[in-house]
Fold this protein.
Amino acid sequence: MKKLLVSFLVIVLLSGAWAGLRFTALMQGWLLTAWAEQENSAHFARRLQSEVDKLYKGNAVYALIENGEVMDTHFVSIGKPVSEDSVFGVASVGKWVTAMAVMRLVEQGRLELDTPVSQYPKRWQLPESEFDNDLVTLRRLLSHTAGIEDGLGHNGFAPNEPIQPLTEHLTQAADADPGVNGKVVVTSAPGESWAYSGGSYNLVQLIIEDVTQQSFQQAMQNLVFEPLGLANTYFQVKRSDPMLAEYFGESQQTRDYPNYTSLAATGLYSNLADMQKLLLTNVVNQSNQRSLPKLLRENSLKQMWQPEGYVSGQAIWGVGLMLFAPTENGFVMGHGGKSEYLNATVRFDSESGDGFIMFQTGNEEAFASNMATQWTLWKTGKPDIYLVNNRMDMVLRDIVFGSLLILLSAVVFWTVQYRRKRSTKFS
């Protein structure tokens, strides 16, 4: 009996050690191979261009940035040519830009990150819930920790359809995904867990409008776009814009960009040149002596970079931006955006000024994000949160198979031992 108990404990310990080792290998990227050595930018740039040329199905643009300077760009299209000036829909990247506007209003003393948001809207309030709505703050709305799990989807409205007013959309979104309730309501205790919530940003949009007494587009123009000199960045598509990139969809057919009520959550349009300025305003290290555009104080930026959202103990979200992978002094940060056949990504290291920006349409999968995953692995040697998530099933399978192998090995060992003893006993 004692030997059986010891055997069981050994199996448990070995299985636990194997699980820990396999999970650590995933998080540290031990089994992953970057496209190039960290110091070999030219090699990475060539591999990236080759992959994009091979895989794009509609159009794509990207910029590789090192020490605040663009070191490589690439543009491909099956139709109308694209360039660094081409304007793409960048979907949820607008959440990050909206968060910058919030921080400007905080610096101006017009908003506070940790005050109940109920004091700001004039036209709409969160419905009563079984939880304390006064725990819903701007910090939690921006970090997806406010307990608002809306699952709206934000499909938008066709060019010939009326755009639903924001207050009605908050109450019951007309463009919600099938099968979801389309309501912005507190469904879990604020501050206790992370759950991605576009509806949280609809509420932030309303707050910005009510506090500034301006339309969201005009407020963003005054707070962010004009101070940074962004001439080709706006919310709500401008169909007459000659620089608007074609939107390729299924079977490489062109489609219309939709109109959105959810501007802050998914309605941003921009180009590489403007997005680089937005990226550089988040760089704190100016050792290269370049005059980088500045929008926010360093303390405000550091509040945005402070981890607020966690999944399985891993920091994945700050105030308005994603924390993709750890670096020596912080994180590779930024935001992604995804709609049907459209994908955008912005990533940067605030210390080094290195970054990657890519917009694309025509690919059903998250093509830009996949390329950004490779950039992050190259820069940090570690997988980003997407790669961790995509490989988790494989890791769990390896853990199960490894544990079964340990169990089988123990059974074989004790069977051999048992037969030896029997053989010795009767010899």
Notes: The chain has a mean pLDDT of 89. The CA atoms of residues 193 and 411 lie 42 Å apart.
